[in-house]
Amino acid sequence: MYGLVINVSNVISPLCYSLIRVEPFNTCGFRCTYCYARWYRVSDEVIKPNYRSVIEFKVVAKKVYRRGLKPIPARLSTLSEPFQYVEELYKISLEVLNYALKYEYPLIINTKSTLIAKNPWFKFVRKLSDRGLVIVQFSFSTFMDNLAKVIEPIAPKPSERLKALSLLNDAGVPIVIRLSPFIPKVSLYGYEPTELIGKLRELGIKHVIVESIRLPKEELIELFRKFNVDVGSLRDYSLHTIEGKEPLYRPGHEVIYGDYLRLKELLSKNSIGFSTCKEGLFSLHTSSDCCGMYLLKTDYVKRVTLYEVYKELREMRELPIDRVEMLINELCSKQGYICARNMSSYPKRIKRRFKAHELRLIRVIKNSRLLTHASPEFEVHEGIIKVR
Fold it and tell me: Quick one: fold of 306-387?
């Protein structure tokens, strides 16, 4: 089963804020054809509730609450749909919502299900929202029902998801759209960009996240051919191989950047936030974080990522590699970010893992190959880091 804190990696550690995650199920019944999570799961066979993950979350949320600490927002979930059809039977994600409400713990919900807009789940999400404790990210690979039928045939139709998120928005729940996975010429098919942004504005969307598709190379090429997409160059996702696993690849920046830039410009004109996920394209970001945490109306704390380093370097112009730790410590002491040095009161099961992520972040920054792979916004020359 999956731990409460996401594993350390050359991608997650430098780029992600939401390291705490609750995985209520061992696998996902939606069986989307592009699902990268198959790469991480042990089994895709029988859907089972993951009670251990929920209990771990309860224990940590309770300790953080009783110790009067600022919570680190948790994600529900990362590798499976928390409101898939079996949730109606097990109601395990409902338990997570209940614990978050009881211990005032902020949640980032990631879903493509419509169940969240039905009671009793809707009632709990609305209560969390009333206390500023939740944002809901709805995932779309396409907004066209006919295309979705091909690549995500078991998931609710995009049109049904739009109705569900509209109900949540009407109840005051902050809604984020995740174009995840973003598939060139597929995700935006059927809409002129201005038409799509107008629709999102009418639906009350506060933020849009894009995350490009990642799959084993042959699967990615085959998917592109199916939709007559020019493959272009492919990028290795992590620069790290795992025995028995095919490496994952993403479209090259030249394939996706134009669409991202156009979206960013149009969204900015309509006062909707924009960010990329695990892309490191920070110059396109228009918000203080990539997850939409800034939409939470409760007190919370987040970790330092490469995005904070990028923002500091835009002011500093350059950073000697031997001053990386000093910069991170300054961000923690002066700007209120959470680091290993100020986590002494947090539960051990998250404290140790966050320290490991921080060490990996530092390692990535100090390694020019890993740094420029995590984010093409940086360059390193003779021990000096600069923003391009």
Answer: Arc Repressor Mutant, subunit A (1.10.10)
